[in-house]
UniProtKB/TrEMBL annotation:
Gene3D superfamilies: 3.40.50.360. It comes from Malaciobacter molluscorum LMG 25693. Its cofactor is FMN. This is Flavodoxin. InterPro entries: Flavodoxin, Flavodoxin/NO_synth, Flavodoxin_lc, Flavoprotein-like_sf. Transmembrane segments: none annotated. GO terms for molecular function: electron transfer activity; FMN binding. Belongs to the flavodoxin family. Low-potential electron donor to a number of redox enzymes. The keyword Electron transport applies. Keywords: Electron transport, Flavoprotein, FMN, Transport. Pfam families: Flavodoxin_1.
């Protein structure tokens, strides 16, 4: 089954992460929400959303533009994972917060959410995206920890792929 990545990116960090995640999958489509809006989201059952945090804990602006359409999508029967770009040094009190808004809405809409990760190798004060000591998705900090990015993506993408395969069998 084809997996789809929907992301937005202001300074191309999230775009790069989306591309790297895609390499782990045989069948994958990538959509830039700034170009396609929320169209096509409903066409897929296996979805990865990329939502960076901007402007002190807010979703990046192109996500905000699709937010009301996004909230009207029925995610029942869909399996979804989320990733977020953030900056733990300059925004230690709102680190990767945006992921939580997307997570909350997906949960409300009945999505099966996979891909939680450990907070162990990060250093921040507070993040809305942490539940029970785990991030609700993959967090990448290209500003301060670019040397950890490839391994974080590889480990996460492998796990997501396995969970999605299990889901379809
Ligand atoms: C104006 C501005 C505000 C930001 N606010 C936050 C924030 O509140 N929390 C956070 O974790 N990162 C924040 N960031 C960091 C971005 O998420 C980070 O730079 C990320 O790599 C951007 O990637 P993208 O443009 O490809 O989405 C902010 C960046 C900018 C420029």
């Amino acid at each position: 089954m084809t997996t789809a990545i929907f992301y937005t990116s202001q300074c191309n960090h999230a775009k790069g992460v989306a591309k790297k995640i895609s390499k782990a999958f045989d069948e994958i489509r990538i959509f830039d929400i700034a170009v396609t809006g929320s169209e096509y989201i409903n066409d897929f059952k296996h979805i990865i959303f990329g939502v960076s945090t901007s402007n002190h804990g807010e979703m990046q602006k192109d996500w905000q533009k699709i937010w009301s359409d996004f909230k009207s999508i029925d995610f029942k029967g869909k399996t979804v994972a989320i990733f977020s770009l953030g900056d733990q040094v300059n925004y230690p009190d709102e680190f990767a917060d945006a992921m939580k808004y997307v997570y909350d809405d997906l949960l409300k809409s009945g999505a099966n959410i996979i891909g939680f990760t450990s907070t162990d190798s990060y250093n921040f004060n507070s993040s809305k995206a942490v539940i029970d000591d785990k991030f609700v998705g993959l967090v990448i900090d290209e500003v301060n920890q670019p040397h950890l990015t490839d391994k974080r993506i590889q480990d996460w993408a492998d796990k997501i792929k396995e969970d999605l395969q299990h889901e379809s069998s």
